[in-house]
Amino acid sequence: MFSRPGRSASSLSPDSPRVRRDPRQLVRLLAFARPYRALFVVGLLATLVSSGLNLVFPALFGRLIDASFLRVGSSDTSQLDRTVVLLLGIFALSALFGAAQSYLLSRVGAGVVADLRRAVFSHLLTLSPRFFGEHKTGDLTSRLTSDVGTVQTVTSTALAQLAAQSVSLVGAVVLLVSTSPRLSLLTLAVIPLVIGTAVVVGRQIRRVSREVQDAVAGANASAEEAISGVRVVQSFTAEGVERGRYGEGVLASFRAALRRAQWQALMAGVMSFLTFGALAVVLWYGGRQVMAGSLTPGNLVTFLFYALQVGGTVAALTGIFNQFQEALGASGRIFELLDERSDLPQPAQPAPLARAEGRVAFEGVSFGYGADGERGAVLRDVTLDVPAGQVVALVGPSGAGKTTLVNLIPRFWDVTGGTLRVDGRDVRDYALADLRAQVGLVPQETLLFSGTVRENILYGRPGARPEEVEAAARAANAHEFITAFPQGYDTVVGERGVKLSGGQRQRVAIARAVLKDPRILILDEATSALDNESEALVQAALERLMQGRTTFVIAHRLSTIRNADRIVVMDGGRVVEDGPHADLIAQGGLYRDLYELQFRSQEDARAQLAAP
């Protein structure tokens, strides 16, 4: 329907520079957790309790060892029994609070992701057709699904682990030092090496994670295009082409994922060596102290447990750091969408438009696609005043600017020169929702949604009563074929209405427009793709729909618009003729040429059919 737009200065455009990734994006992401702060605080408290309890049992293990080995030959097992009972109690409480913090923080994460998905989708619906003309649907859905899914790990599991491991690290280090200061210095000397490795390698992980997300989005975009146009693909036997295109995208994501896995494996290997190498040295040095009598076996075991906790905590924090690096790439792509602004600004104080009269005036209107409107000029100095209730037919050769002209009325695009007025006011003075509520559109390629017939008709006015839906279907000559289905109005139409014929889809679309009851109606080639029987039914429905409305009709079949109040002939983005059918025929201009050419083509076709 639209001419192909030029690129704007969108931050999502492949031609624009990449937005700088900033760790503050994660702070912005966590701002979505504000509605769940009560659950988060309770979950955090449970985390603190669970982590604190986990710090107690190494000391009890040490007491258990000393109670066993230092009292060899003694029959008094009371201390050993009390220690075991205390250990079991601590394990039970730790498990209880651990389960509570896991559920509560996972609940917060799931809520954040749901809110984020809603926010991104709602924001996408506010963007203009220019934006969607410049970006592939598959890429946008990838950001909405896989990127948000990546973020979910951070806002749920990773968030809980970050809190738990932070508490464990601080507590384990304090208890480590209190158990044996000398051994502590030896153990803690490894931590700067671990942190340094995490920072250096983490930067590479973040960069490659972004490449993975981009590659997956590209593959999704190719798949979405091929699936949505599968009939064209199959008719041209282009399955191999699309298979190769999608395969290239998958291969690119696979290679990027391998690079990420290599960096993650490098980090894991270095962390493992540093952690367990340090423990081996500690065990060697601690064993020498036990042999010298300066450290009990129980204290050594306690120290080893705390050292293991420190090592395990640092390793876990490293993994969490990796997850945050991946989330930085994903959140960057998400916030690029949320930061995208429509090129159709809303007025600060919109003019009221409860029920439009329907007068439309183009005053020296020019329009061109592209960021500045100067590239690909489609309309040039169009002046046209259409009184309320008039039926105007727009005719002209392909590319004359007819569809572009009518798409300016609901502000799918903004004029780049001149002024477009509805009821005497510039359309930019109205709120978009108020303006579009007054405009009904019946295009050539009708898009139905994959629900029922009733749901598709209700799209015109969601709160309509069942009898109003039926009345709209009757007006659109759709009631009979709808009730012939076994499920009637509850018949599922399939994706894009694939289970209905072209004429049926068009009549459902007309019923949708009837239910909306717009003051301005746009019919863009509404009958051009139909057979004669369907066209007659649709045309009758359209004539009822046009009554009392300002109507713009675009049609290549000139016989269908002879009875229009006025015919506007366009060529090269300009209005070249304007008047009723008889006057334009008498003038002998472009309209008569088009009419006679089409008439002769029809006569030739009839003659060929009549020939033996």
Automatic annotation (TrEMBL):
One of its GO terms (molecular function) is ATP binding. One of its GO terms (biological process) is oligopeptide export from mitochondrion. The chain crosses the membrane at residues 38-65, 85-105, 183-201, 265-286, 298-321. One of its GO terms (cellular component) is plasma membrane. Gene3D superfamilies: ABC transporter type 1, transmembrane domain, P-loop containing nucleotide triphosphate hydrolases. The keyword Transmembrane helix applies. SUPFAM superfamilies: ABC transporter transmembrane region, P-loop containing nucleoside triphosphate hydrolases. It comes from the Bacteria. This is ABC transporter ATP-binding protein. PANTHER family: ATP-BINDING CASSETTE SUB-FAMILY B MEMBER 10, MITOCHONDRIAL, ATP-DEPENDENT PERMEASE MDL1, MITOCHONDRIAL. It is found in: Cell membrane. It is a multi-pass membrane protein. Keywords: ATP-binding, Cell membrane, Membrane, Nucleotide-binding, Transmembrane, Transmembrane helix, Transport. Residues 360-597 form the ABC transporter domain. It comes from Deinococcus indicus. Residues 41-326 form the ABC transmembrane type-1 domain.
